[in-house]
Amino acid sequence: MIRFPWLLVGASALVAAPLAAQTARFDPARLSHHVQTLGSDAFEGRGPATRAETKTVNYLIEQLKAAGVSPGGQLVAGKRTWTQDVPLLKSEIVGQPKLTLNLNGRDMPLTQGQEIAVRSPLTGANSVNIANAPLVFVGYGVTAPERGWDDFKGVDVKGKIVVVLINDPDFDGGEGQFGGKAMTYYGRWTYKYEEAARHGAAGVLIVHETAPASYGWNTVKNSNTNVMFDIVRKDPTSEHTPFDSWIQRDLATAIFAASGKDFEAAKQAAKRKDFQPITLNATLSAAVNAKTERIVSQNVVGRLAGTKRPDETVIYSAHWDHLGIGQPDANGDRIYNGAVDNGTGLAQVLEQARVFAHEPRTDRSIVFLLVTVEEKGLLGSEYYAANPLYPLSKTVGVLNTDSMGVFGPARNYSIRGAARLGLLDVLIAEGNKAGRTFTPEPHPEAGGFYRSDHFPFAKVGVPAISFGSGNDLVNGGIERGEALSKDYTEKRYHQPDDEWLPTWDFSGIVADAQLLHAVGRDLANSDAWPNWSEDSEFRAVRDQSAGERPSSSQSPKPGERG
To answer: Angle 372-376-378 (CA atoms, 0-180°, nearest 5)?
Structure first.
């Protein structure tokens, strides 16, 4: 029996529905329709700077219009548009890179996507030419003076390729300088490239291992061997080396063996602060050609203006992009659909817009921000945070959703990371009302706090969380929830098989959306200004703008930490 026949018609079906016929409630069929549509082959993996971007942006605007919200993007001739321009550097490898590793005098050709995943250069160059660059192992590649930690130990790595481990020294029984199992920013791959660039290295080889990376080699390959993007920087070489790359663990083991070293022993040594860099008896040569250009992508923005304090803003966010069309998988599928990642988050925000638009207007404004190029480094949200459409000092908080649960309702819920902030207190209070339990992130070692679009807002002081659907499923408990999560990570995450399935149960996202709706409505109808905890690294930045908020905001508010 077809319960929802409109699921079988085109995307315009929802748009054509008269507003009077819609009810102000979250609808699993609507959520499913958005995910099915945005995750279909017709949207070609929603790659930025492709024809799929135009189609995706048009769909999102169409849905926001139908929901009943107003344009919230940049001003043109004094009027708000639906989008915000995001200038980007785009870089794509042309042809096959020529990569040769010399181990103890013996040349070993490397194949892109197999032993190594080389990223197209984001330094602005159209080619990379490296001849016999020496390799040096610098442990986790961390320079953290506040922790008394320096993996480089003064070694000059200019003109050299640094070999580094992924995650933190604490990940697997280190000395405890990095907070234990939970990843710090020092463990992120983005940091590894940034720190190597600051030391003037010619390139980076990040050694991939599934557990500390939190995903398999297929994810690394699919995410790094296609088109690369970055925001336009004055000096891109301050953030990227000419040769950013990953290698498989087996290749790392062979490199160390050729130098008379044991990889596991070197890895154990790197967990201690007295670690000393190791010069390897290996060199790398590379010839990579790339097409590099500046392009403009789009954030999509809708808004419901507040009735009393429209200059104060609550943001619901999600990223619209995915990996587009890439290398074929074993079945020959080249479209990386991104149904869960992040069709689910998009659907949730679109539904928030519809429901809020059918309710009485809130005192504060609500913005629905759908950002671009998350998959290449949170770039759309980073650009917004640097070029806000609405003052950051008067942005109450950000509620981000990325890859939500499609296997039915859960008893619990979470956020990415272990940050302490008043926004979490509000979320927990609303969760208690709904009979749901907050659970700290079950896998903090994955570094989820640094991998989603709330993070650029946090860096500039705005209270921000990325909501996580629960793993304690009503049907099957934690055992089933963890098994399904593992299956998704191994077989679908950043792979062509992240496709919509008719067996998915969207009632769990309905419950999540209801919870997030209650949080946003409470914030938008209050005069509270949730802050970070006193010991948070983001508190000082937020406090610097305190004078720009109403004086009443300086008083402690119910539910505020710190």
So the answer is: 55
E-strand stretches of 374-460: 395-401, 412-415, 437-438
> How many angstroms separate the CA atoms of 524 and 507, rounded?
25
> Among 479, 347, 322, 474, which Cα is nearest to 404's?
347
What pLDDT, in 10s, does the model give residues 465-484? 999 999 999 999 999 999 99
pLDDT in tens, 237-261: 999 999 999 999 999 999 999 999 9
> How many whole angstroms separate alpha carbon 173 and alpha carbon 330?
37
Task: Output the CA–CA distances (angstroms, integers) from residue 171 to 165, 205, 270, 444, 525, in the order listed.
Answer: 11, 19, 11, 10, 42
CB 463 within 8 A of CB 425: no
Q: Token digits for 220?
A: 């690394």
Task: Look at residue 401 and give its three-state secondary structure.
Answer: strand
Residue written as tokens 């207190």?
Answer: 425
- Please answer whether residues 307 and 362 qualify as being in contact, where contact means their C-beta atoms are separated by less than 8 angstroms: yes
Run of H or E residues at 15 = helix 12-16
Q: What count of Cα atoms within 13 Å lies in the side-chain half-sphere of residue 70?
A: 12
Calpha distance 514→359 (Å, rounded): 14
Taking the C-alpha atoms of residue 475 and residue 296, their distance in angstroms, rounded to an integer, is: 45
